[in-house]
Amino acid sequence: MWQDTRTAELVRELAGAKGFDRLREDVGLPLSTYFSGPKVAWILDSVPGARARAERGELAFGTIDTWTLWNLTGGVDGGVHATT
């Protein structure tokens, strides 16, 4: 994870009137800019062409483990993209 607060507005919107703890009972954690979901949403909405490339299957998201596995299994030449 990288500490990046560009998603703060999105996280505030998701929290709404119920606040940052609105999902804590279900998932055990508060809404936060720390997590990858809002970061991926920000990339898709803010980086020119990212959403279109993702829709065409040209982008993949994952962890550093995902990236390492992809590179060790061939990368652009057929690497395996997997995440847990």
Properties at a glance:
84 residues; mainly alpha; 5 helices
Question: Can you walk through the features of this model?
Answer:
This protein has 84 residues and is mainly α. The chain contains 5 helices and no strands. The protein has helices at residues 8-15, 24-27, 36-46, 50-55, 64-72. The chain is globular, with a radius of gyration of 15 Å. The chain starts with 7 loop residues before the first helix and ends in a 12-residue tail after the last helix. The mean pLDDT is 92.
How would you sum up this structure in a few lines?
The chain has 84 residues and is mainly alpha-helical. It has helices spanning 8-15, 24-27, 36-46, 50-55, 64-72. The longest helix has 11 residues, at 36-46.
